[in-house]
């Protein structure tokens, strides 16, 4: 059964998050403005066996390369021990001068593990440097944070984060939508639920978790795709249930969602 931070988050999840918060504050020191939770743990769909913990950190000014290296060490030691992390650090100026795709100061996910380990081991700066990068996903992360996120410590969300224009949010989620159209056979659980999230938003302006979108799909969509959604949702919610998915059923739901979205966007 997925968990919610406020009502039923297991003690080990809370301990993990607060230990990470303490480590980040120790590194960023007086430039720390806030530590914010978004994603499945904030919205009540967190599965300890499969979900990331999604965090945004805001600092008063850009981090030095040394600070980035210290953060990388902390996150390499923390992520997947036991929960994987996806974390971005943004400055208050980057948020106030809103642009899409949004610039950020530092980012960590497991995708970056090998790159950061290499820089730290060899003393290089190929990935841990002063370069300011942008991330189109931040428009979606910040929108979800504004609607469903949690301030763990620091200034309130509404004082720190901008209201992201609807067009920017739509642009952000449509990028992932295209990836899911192509990847549904390789990752049917994530891709099906994410496609449903996009459809629900475009259909009804609802910002939802993957679990909520799956339940909506079962209730609202035609019978010929509901059985597949039920299997997907049961796999997502359980640590033991596994189903095999036939190619034709995955393509059926993919094509149905894509055609419905194209109709709604016309």
TrEMBL record:
Coiled-coil blocks: none
Annotated Polymerase nucleotidyl transferase domain residues: 24-95
The organism of origin for this protein: Oceanobacillus picturae
Domain of life: Bacteria
GO terms classed as biological process: response to antibiotic
Reaction catalysis annotation: spectinomycin + ATP = 9-O-adenylylspectinomycin + diphosphate
The protein, known as: Spectinomycin 9-adenylyltransferase
Taxonomic placement: Bacteria, Bacillati, Bacillota, Bacilli, Bacillales
The Adenylyltransferase AadA C-terminal domain, residue ranges: 159-248
GO terms for MF: adenylyltransferase activity; ATP binding
Keyword list, A-Z: Antibiotic resistance, ATP-binding, Nucleotide-binding, Nucleotidyltransferase, Transferase
């Amino acid at each position: 059964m997925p968990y919610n931070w406020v009502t039923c988050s297991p003690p080990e999840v809370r301990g993990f998050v607060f230990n990470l918060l303490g480590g980040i504050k120790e590194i960023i020191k007086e430039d720390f403005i806030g530590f914010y939770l978004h994603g499945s743990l904030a919205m009540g769909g967190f599965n300890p066996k499969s979900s990331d913990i999604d965090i945004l950190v805001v600092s008063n000014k850009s981090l030095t390369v040394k600070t980035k290296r210290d953060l990388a060490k902390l996150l390499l030691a923390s992520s997947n021990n036991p929960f994987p992390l996806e974390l971005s650090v943004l400055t208050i100026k980057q948020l106030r001068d809103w642009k899409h795709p949004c610039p950020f100061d530092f980012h960590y996910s497991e995708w970056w593990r090998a790159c950061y380990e290499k820089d730290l081991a060899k003393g290089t700066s190929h990935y841990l440097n002063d370069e300011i990068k942008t991330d189109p996903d931040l428009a979606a992360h910040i929108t979800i944070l504004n609607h469903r996120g949690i301030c763990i410590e620091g200034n309130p969300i509404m004082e720190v984060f901008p209201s992201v224009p609807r067009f920017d949010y739509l642009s952000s989620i449509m990028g992932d939508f295209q990836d899911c159209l192509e990847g549904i056979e390789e990752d049917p659980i994530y891709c099906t639920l994410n496609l449903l999230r996009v459809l629900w938003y475009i259909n009804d302006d609802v910002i939802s978790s993957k679990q909520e979108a799956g339940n909506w799909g079962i209730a609202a969509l035609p019978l010929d795709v509901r059985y597949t959604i039920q299997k997907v949702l049961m796999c997502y919610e359980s640590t033991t249930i596994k189903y095999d998915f036939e190619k034709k059923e995955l393509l059926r739901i993919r094509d149905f969602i894509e055609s419905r979205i194209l109709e709604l966007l016309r």
